[in-house]
Amino acid sequence: MAKIHGFKFVLVLVLSILINLFFLFNHFVDKDTELSWSKAAAREAELVASISCSGHGRAYLDGIPFQGEPICECNSCYGGKDCSEVLTECLADADSGDPLFLEPFWMQHAASSAVVVAGWHRMSYRFDDYSSISEELEKHIRQLHAVIGNAVTDGRFILFGAGSTQLLNAALFGLSLDDSPSPANIVASIPFYPLYEAQTKYFNSMEFKWQGDASLWKNRSDSSGTFVEFVTSPNNPDGRLMKQVLKGPSSKTIFDHAYYWPHFSAIQTAADEDLMIFTLSKLTGHAGEPIWFQLILTFLVMYQGYTLIIKERKAMWALVRDENIYKRMQMYISLSTKSVSRDTQLRALKLLKVVLKENGKDLFEFGPKTMRNRWERISRSFSTSKRFSLQKLEPQYCNYFQNFTGPSPAYAWIKCERAKDQDCNAVLKTASIIGRGGSTFNAESRYVRLSLIKSQDDFDLLIQNIDALVSKEGGVAYI
Amino acid sequence: MAKIHGFKFVLVLVLSILINLFFLFNHFVDKDTELSWSKAAAREAELVASISCSGHGRAYLDGIPFQGEPICECNSCYGGKDCSEVLTECLADADSGDPLFLEPFWMQHAASSAVVVAGWHRMSYRFDDYSSISEELEKHIRQLHAVIGNAVTDGRFILFGAGSTQLLNAALFGLSLDDSPSPANIVASIPFYPLYEAQTKYFNSMEFKWQGDASLWKNRSDSSGTFVEFVTSPNNPDGRLMKQVLKGPSSKTIFDHAYYWPHFSAIQTAADEDLMIFTLSKLTGHAGEPIWFQLILTFLVMYQGYTLIIKERKAMWALVRDENIYKRMQMYISLSTKSVSRDTQLRALKLLKVVLKENGKDLFEFGPKTMRNRWERISRSFSTSKRFSLQKLEPQYCNYFQNFTGPSPAYAWIKCERAKDQDCNAVLKTASIIGRGGSTFNAESRYVRLSLIKSQDDFDLLIQNIDALVSKEGGVAYI
């Protein structure tokens, strides 16, 4: 009996010691990978991220705390402490091009996309390679274009800028600062992105002059001077792939390829132009458009005599073939605001690494699918309508997917078909929908741009209000 | 015997179980604070930070990896895999204003200054308060000025910009965009920061025109139009506190207070001007001056006909009294590059929180002490010299320290006293010292600016070369 007891005892003891050893081993293995100075920041970030905002909002590290605690910032049309309340009489805002449709993707890829910035990270601007863009970042951008096949980077300089305006301006200065006695003429094809006109006019430089619609200058004489044409392809607002209108030795082109990613367009060919501009914001969804610009709009209209709506694209780059133009652009960037901050570059690099995993498989499964679904959904909403029409877009062969892909534009370009609906934006507003009127893009006010790239909450409300509007059509007299 | 055995057995077992319980408890308590998605990024950052570069270099997260591993980027005049090799025939570069003297401070405050940026952090630019600067950041900036006592923020708007050039330009546009038919005249007092002239000329705007030295316009007539004067105080290069030269209703002033922090100057009074510009970079030491600008200098001289050296100040703000001027500046920022990136704002906020701890006690113990020591050291080096003189600076009463404090300027402003040493920069260069020539600041070439705010390695080498130069004086004939 005592022997059996003893045996059991030994068994339990051995077991207990084994468990001890297991814990001890674990403890030391853990020790090895334990964090020191970064732990507090990591905890703080995870704490803020863990705050529940009911899926209709988010708490941020730099949010305004309430009683010392970070609080939820709710999506439009949601309110309450945890964003669970649906606000009534709320407008569906489809105005801005804030690419929040990719937010869920980054939340799914939290671990690979987080960045820890040490307090002493890159305090100096000095790079060992003396360039404005870290060599690593440049390498990843070239790799990105190669993987997607949307641009040729061989024999191109890469210039990194802090925003669309900066880089577009740099291009303008780069191309127009000739020894030519007369200012360069700046043009674009209607409908076009309003910033081109606004900034050309605002800087009021002796080097260049805004000349409006490109097609008016097709048959110009040689003595008309240098022309610089802005071409956005795929186009904002209507998503069409564009070519330049003006040709010949005296005309230069700035290609804005902000939307030439698999999310928004089939990749039909690798762009091979002299001066091309791309942005990370429409690829990864980081950056949007500060709403306060809309608030100063009234002031701008009063003060400058033209309307202006501005878009931000935080991290952008230009691919430039000519070295002299590249150097002039570099000079402009240095004078206007200097290179992109190191924090932004560090984050951009991390995001690109996630994008490039398995040749973009994850992101380009999520992004194009989301955008295609939204296009199909809004097409269905308008399919029964005779009052409104959507732009026509056909499936195209995409080299990236090696397959035909359905349309997935960033914006719907709506036309009001009824003769009396001349102000289409006003018509939509009666149905609590906020779009961006055609006149902003120098087109007829019969057109309105609706953003399809905002958050799912925004899109759902937009569809709800469109459906309500279209369903009423039967009851309204057709004129 | 068996009983004793049994007793010992029980004792060991109880002990073992207790240890298990301890580990188990620990495990669950740890569980509570264990990290999930941020862990990988935190580990990566700590791994890079732990790479030893012998105190003469640093490895960075976005550095160019060698065989997949991050590598050391060495300080100037150091080389080798771990930066332990001293490079011979290396120049002491005291040219740039890269404020690396604060790097050790941030390494000492690693835990409180690190930031974790989640992949989905602030993808949208939307702020609930619709302003360009997060409310939290603005609050901390006001608090900062209150604690230091270097500026009045009551009744001021705060505008945040991405760099000195941007904000200074914004100020220029803000003040000169009147309905006035003639362009505004832009002036500054010699010696002045060369960017003012360079950017005014470069933008070649119809709104303003560079007119050089302010003192030439003291007795102007009323019909000379609007004047905008740049005043840097403390002055760059010579560290003196400055006032505007031009007065009267037709003159406006932009006060550049980049160096008005306890590191570089006694805080004699809270600045109370209409338009004041401050920067984080000279306060926290984050940001410097990209060296590649120097490389394109040759190009600039060739192309534009003037020399240009540019400084970057990553996160800046302006305190503006007049709402209309504030709005015009805001418009300029929106057109030239848009608001500061959210990553930069987030980091700025974190750094400010560290700065503000105990009313700035830690930072303003480290910073002013370091700068004062360097000034005393370089003064000692030149004290026996008859060939070179330093600018004269007196101890002043500082409201922040509530005491008299010795000089601690950011730059030494050296004068070559010998008649034949007209090009002082060339003289220093023979002693392997690189300074910035007086002509850059529109002063005589008999002057040279030497930067005192770079890393300790840079400063030590500078002193070593100065001492060698001064010790040779006896042997050289005095002319």
Automatic annotation (TrEMBL), chains A, B:
GO function term, MF aspect, one: transaminase activity
UniProt cofactor(s): pyridoxal 5'-phosphate
Keyword Transmembrane belongs to the record: yes
GO biological-process terms attached to the record: amino acid metabolic process
InterPro entries hit by this protein: Alliinase_C, Alliinase_N_sf, EGF_alliinase, Ethylene_sulfur-biosynth, PyrdxlP-dep_Trfase, PyrdxlP-dep_Trfase_major, PyrdxlP-dep_Trfase_small
Keyword terms: Membrane, Pyridoxal phosphate, Transmembrane, Transmembrane helix
Coiled-coil boundaries: none
Domain (Alliinase EGF-like) ranges: 36-90
TM stretches of this protein: 7-29
One of the Pfam families matching this protein, by short name: EGF_alliinase
All residue ranges annotated as the Alliinase C-terminal domain in the record: 92-296, 317-469
Signal peptide: none
Family as reported in the entry's similarity comment: Belongs to the alliinase family.
Protein name: Uncharacterized protein
Organism of provenance: Coptis chinensis
